[in-house]
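agent> fetching stored inputs for the zinc ion docking request
agent> found them:
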Amino acid sequence: MDHDTTLLLGLDGLAVTKVVAAGNEPQDGPVVHLATADERARCCPQCGVVAVRMKEWVTTRPRDLPVGGRCCALRWRKRRWCCDQASCPRQTFTEQVPQVPARARLTTRLRQAAGAAGAAVADGGRTVIHSARDHRVSWPIVSAAFTAHARRVLPAQPAPVNVLGIDEIRRGRPRWVLEESTGTWTTTVDRWHVGFVDLSGEQGLLGQVEGRPSPR
Ligand SMILES: [Zn+2]
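agent> prediction call returned; pasting C-alpha cells
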C-alpha cells in the first residue's frame, strides 16, 4: 500500500494500492487502484455482524473529484461477503465506506460538490457551465444535480408572477467563422442566454434558455 498516495487522495476507508500512468489523451487521468482499509466495511448493513465468508471479488468504478486538477479513474477492488446470521434476511453484501456507499456511482464528496454546483445554478444564477467550472465537476453532473435540486425545492408550478424580468446575459466573447462559400461571418458559439426572473416576488430565477431572440 502506498501510504503517501492514500493521504493525497484522501478518501477515508480506501487505500491506494497502485497508480497507473495516464493514457495519451490530454483528458486521460491516471488510473488509481484502491483496496478497502476499513474493517467496518465487512459488517453486514442489515444486522451489523462482521462477515467471515467471502463470496467473490468485484470492482467498482466510482467517479470522483479531480485530484491536482486531473480526473482520476478509480478502480476499487472489493469483496462481496455472505451474511451467515440465521436471523438476517440479507444473504450477501458488498463492502462500502461512507465515501462510496453501496451502488453509488459517485463518491460522496463528488456528489456534495455536484449538489453545491446545482444549488449555485438554482439559487446563485450561475449557468451550468460556469458552476461546473467553479466546482470542478463535469457539466452533465451539474445539470443532473441542478435538476434534482430543482425537483426538491420547486413546486410543480411557479406561483403567479406580477413583474417578470427578462434579461439577456452574455458570457465571454462570441466566436466567429468565415463561411468561404458565401463570404459571410457567422457565430459558431452562442454566448448569450436569457433568464426569466420574478422581479416583484421572491421566486428568483424561473428559467434560463440558451441563445437570444435575433435582433431586428
Ligand atoms: Zn446480516
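agent> quick read of the result: The beta strands are 14-20, 31-36, 53-60, 73-82, 92-94, 164-170, 175-179, 184-189, 192-198, 204-210.
agent> awaiting further instructions
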